[in-house]
Structure formats: structure tokens, C-alpha cells
Amino acid sequence: MTDCAHRHDCRPIVVVDAGSYSLSETSIAGVGLRLAEMARTLSRRYTVRVIAPPCADPIDLDAAELVTPGKKAEKTIASSDAVMFFDTPNRHRIELAVAHRTRIIGECRAPIEHMSYPSVLACSDPTGEHQRFLGPHRRLLEVSHHFICRSQVERAALISTLCSIGRITPEDITRSSTLDHLVSTVPVGFGQRGLEVADAVGRTHLADFLWTGGIWTFFEPFMLVEAMGVLRDRGVNATAAFLHAAPTEDTRPAINEITKAIENLSLGQYVHLHTKPLTQSERDQYVKAAHAYVCIARPGVENETGTRLRLRDTWLHGVPTIIDPWGVSSEIVARENLGIVLHDPSPETLAGALQGVKDGSVDRPGRRMERLYENSMAPFFKWLDASCATSDRDLRRRPTNEQRETK
């Protein structure tokens, strides 16, 4: 069989490495869903193979092939034209991509939030424990040929970092003052397949207001519980639910405290913790029927530098987001009229916003097709097409730091 037969009519082979992120239909999280949707979009132009932990109910990846870690994954990387890594990448597979001289693409979000994880802070040496996140991240910065960012803020932070470690040279700036050959911005959004799946299901009311993402230490989930108590005391008939309340090692303490708060405030009939496995189609039914999503965070550098992936729900389903004023995500909500920014977050101000939504005084923003990955990934496709058309002699390697040092 010819090489072209293996490569589906000579299409470039792109590997999407999910690292430790699950692609299970019932446990996939924000980063996993983003990389899965990007893989689906890529699979319409390239031969795509996705390396992810094994699971009983993998999410639909369209034409992309799912590969479990191990020998087959190693062979897949060896035969690929490009490998994409995301948050918390697998260090061993990074080194495999380096060894096989394939193109390396990194969505290099700095592991800031991990420094607040209870599992890290509980260690005798939290700084040393954090190295298991920081080490692969730094290695990816060193060896990637191209980088992907989720927002202009993240792009600015990445470029400053690349300059500091010597990955940007005068030659780069001469080639392109905007560094388009080195960095592509692919904003948080949704793919065509995700849109089709969402449109295929109806609306099922779980609660009026949903907390749609994880319950992390840098958020303020208790404020939603307290706000629901304020609404009850005002005589407003409303309900809320935390969609992903199945405890994990790092969310169990917060979920336990929320459970106690619901009991102490006698809000059991108003606030629901959804702890059962939830498929994507079920999730779509609940979010489509909600009046608004709530995402209140604490002030902190994680929220200053990162775009919240749960904004996908608003762009896809057209349901307003109620958010705090801290960081780039609130700036996006304000600029694009996606919902309500609480400039002074408190149970009372949040309750006022929820009541306004319930009363119909807040417009639904509507679906935003400019956030479709098939549209927003176009500049990255341009780079990838040009890169794959370049001979190995010309491309591999664009010198990384360690290669410059050995010359």
C-alpha cells in the first residue's frame, strides 16, 4: 500500500493530543470539549488522530480517529505531520514529537490555576508539586513551532514570555511584525458539529439559572446560593442548579461547603447540585432552556489572564451570562453585550441581576456565528497548509533555545 493510501489521499496527518483530559461523553470538561471541537473541525481538511485516555463513552469526533496512549499513540506521533498539545501536556509524548522531528503546535496556557488546587496546596512541598504542571508547559514553550491562543490577552502574555526566553528573534519581527507565522489566535467558540448536535435536541427545564462549569477555588459559587436565598426572601419564584457537581479531588471541599450552605439556608427546593453523569445532548437541553448562566469569580491573576471556556454556552445557545468584573472574560461580555457584568459582586447585586433576567428585562444575546471554529481557525489553517507544504529541510527545525545553545 502506498504512503498516500495511508494518508487518505495524501492529506497531512495532524495529531491532537488531549494529555490527561477525558473525552468521555459524560465527563468531558472545558478544555477537552474545546480540543475535541477543534479536532472535528480539523478532520474536515486533514487526517486527524486524537490521543486521549481510554473511556467507555467517547465523545463523537466526526472523521477524527481516537487513539489510546501506548505503543499505537507513539507510532501515530512518529508518522504525523503535526502534533497539537494543550493544557497540562504529556511530557513523554512531547519528547517523542521532538525526536521524530514533527511540527509541534502548542496551546500554551500557563498553569496558574493549578497553584490554587487543594491537591497541590495539601502537599508538603506545593512548589515542588506544581512542577509537574510547570515542567511540561515550559518544555512546550521551548520546542513548539507554532502557538495557539484563546484571546488577545492570552496572546499578549504568550508573546512577552516567548521574547523573555529567546523564542522571538529580530528575524521573526522582520518577517512579520504581528508574528502571524508563529502565533494564531483561535477564540473560544464552538464547531459546526457541536452546533448541529445542539440544534437537534429540544429544551428541558432543569433550573432557571445554571452554574455551567467547574466549581473551583478561584470562583465564588457560594454567592449563587446566597443570592437564591435573597430571591426566596423577596418572594421571587426561581431555581438554580450546578450542572457539574460530581466531586473530584480538587472540587470536593467546595462542593461539600455548598451542600452545607444549601441545607443551612433551607434552599433544597430552590438550588440543585447535579451529581449524575451528564451527556452533551442532555447538557444542551438544560442550557437551552435556562434563563441565564452564572459565573462569578474572585479577583485573581487566573481570571485576569484566562478566557473562561464556559462562554461557549452563550455564544452557541444565545443565553445571557452573569459575570463578575474581574479580567478579560467580563470585558468580552460587556463589549459583545452577552449578559450582565456585576461591577460590585454580592449576593444582593447578583439577586438583582437574576430577578431582572427572570422578569424579562435582559435581552438574550443570540447565537454568534463568528465564534464558529470553521471560521475562526482559517488563519491557523493557512499556516498549517503552508507548513505542511514546506520540505523537511526547510522546516525542521526552526531553531529552539537548546539548539541555538549547542551551536
TrEMBL record:
Keywords: Transferase. It comes from the Bacteria. Gene3D superfamilies: Glycogen Phosphorylase B. GO terms for molecular function: transferase activity. The keyword Transferase applies. This is Glycosyltransferase involved in cell wall biosynthesis. The lineage of its organism: Bacteria, Bacillati, Actinomycetota, Actinomycetes, Pseudonocardiales.
